[in-house]
């Protein structure tokens, strides 16, 4: 973290507040925020300057007349001469000229600082951030290598050039580069911009969008760079779809004025799960006032389907494949050279390149591991390195479970990031508290080196956890640490008593969105703050807590706003409403609501309702219909296993349960389902018994809230079906069924054993 001391006149407080909101308070030392009341003295000033890595002088008429600013400048000059500080002066007052006699001569002449005038806080922040980034790269050159190193891809660049110039160039508004995570989508885009569009600004405005994000999230994130609007200016209840599109276009045009480009890292918002371009994005790209400028680039984790995009003349689509062996070799040599790893020979390189199949992330992690652990130990950990490159959830999570930094395990921090979603460092540190802040910074560095998290935002202040890992942790039933839970609950109670009124003092996007979520959850949110993505997150949280009536009420309210919600968001809200209606067995309202959907979602929900209502044959037909067309549909596969287990058709369910578990080894449901099917198998082999033991151990280390009861049930079934014991497992199951909360699994297990023993059914 590069910390800046911002020297300024008190008359520039408002300008500095805006600047700090962009740079992030954690990266700045400013008297308003950092000097203790009543302690503004030379000693206090000098202490803060000693803490700083760079000194930012904001030159204005009042600053040049300020005694305090003069003191700060002289101290900074002293530290600069000793190589302890970087000095960057900026003129922010248009009435001040470069030759102003009040500017110290050593600044504007002798030292020849390249004095620039910045009256726009946005452009000033970009220049400061660029300087901070360059200093970081000096201290951590491996980061610059990771960001900028690029090899190969000549074929794809030629393909892009051909598509661009054989069509109507002026029609093209965006380039979509797809491929699996880690294949180099963003580097490809950056390389293309640098080599072919050299008049563009070097660094993009980077925006992250998930499948639960929509046009509102795009607007809010883009505005955090441009700062056209205060957060309070967004009136989501009165803005229809056309208004939202016009605002998005307005912000994009402002970016394009300065030859700046936008990079969206997309996990399902722009290129939908169906393989089409999202409606809201199409509306933006075809809006008549959008500047004819190729300034939007999208790195998508989803590959568009050809038949869905043939008529999209505004877009060019490029699909990246893994690197060739030759390119992998070049890249690996570059990584190890940059790290000054000297005890590695050609055979070592061939070994690593042959094992790591095309992911730059794998090669990066390999080089980092060799540097940290040495050749021999690194080779012994090759499975883990492969796993990180391939995003193998099992290996990653096992490593994070077993690795501790300070008082926290990596898995504890990952659980917190999963709960919070993309979050600013400022808001994250508010949750973890001062005691764990230093530990948290170290953990973030570790997670970044492992390619588990990414940083984005105007000052790279936002932290985003890998989507696959977040999903796995979420499905595992992980419960965040009590200390984090206490802090979150305390903050939520505070926010319930406060209005959502973002100001200059509270202009943190994470803070703003979390306040909205708290209000929605409590049924207190003003409609002008209702953002679909936040509402959907709240809906999902309420559903997981089995508050189905609250979900239905919230969905009902949102669905009345037809003119301001795009169909993608509307369909998502309808989906969760139907799930809740099914849980309530509200057949009439369910049948009416589900008709607004079509395709797989509609069929799945109908099967889900049939299963809950006891029509297992009807449910089975629905899920099999889906799997016939889409064999890898995870939700239908899970539900079909549930139906077959309820029918006691364990043999049919076994292979499917095994497949589900192998795809999601940390999901407690899949552990349980696979065990239930396997333990019923006739003629268990040695490997079968070992697998049953492994599944019990896996459940013991899971995070499911009912873990202990499930484990006891599994052990009881093992005793009965494998060890051929009767009394002990029966006693265990009877005791479990006598408790206040009885699991369906436990109840069914007892009934089946009682039937087999010709005992009265409980």
Task: Looking at this protein, list some descriptive labels.
single chain, 762 residues, Rossmann fold, five-stranded parallel beta sheet, 15 strands
Description:
With 762 residues, the chain is α/β, with parallel strands linked by helices. The chain is built from 39 helices and 15 strands. Among the domains are: 4-139, Toll/interleukin-1 receptor homology (TIR) domain (Rossmann fold); 169-319, 3-Layer(aba) Sandwich (Rossmann fold), CATH 3.40.50; 325-390, no CATH class; 648-756, Serine Threonine Protein Phosphatase 5, Tetratricopeptide repeat, CATH 1.25.40. The strands form 4 sheets. Strands 2-1-3-4-5 form a 5-stranded parallel sheet, sandwiched between helices. A 5-stranded parallel sheet has the order 7-8-9-6-10, sandwiched between helices. Helix 17 (360-373) runs antiparallel to helix 19. The longest helix has 19 residues, at 121-139. It is globular and about 105 Å long. The N and C termini lie far apart (63 Å). Residues 33-37 have low confidence and may be disordered.
Q: What kind of sheet is the major sheet?
A: 5 strands, parallel
Fraction of residues in helices? 55-70%
Strand content: 5-15%
Query: Radius of gyration from the CA trace?
Result: 29 Å
The top level CATH class name of one domain: Alpha Beta
How many individual β-strands?
15
Q: Tell me the CATH architecture of one domain.
A: 3-Layer(aba) Sandwich
Classify the oligomer.
single chain
Task: Provide the residue-averaged pLDDT.
Answer: 82
Tell me the strand order in the biggest sheet.
2-1-3-4-5
SSE-based structural type: alpha/beta
Show unreliable segments.
33-37
Distance between the amino and carboxyl termini: 63 Å
CATH topology of one domain: Rossmann fold
Number of helices: 39
Shape: globular
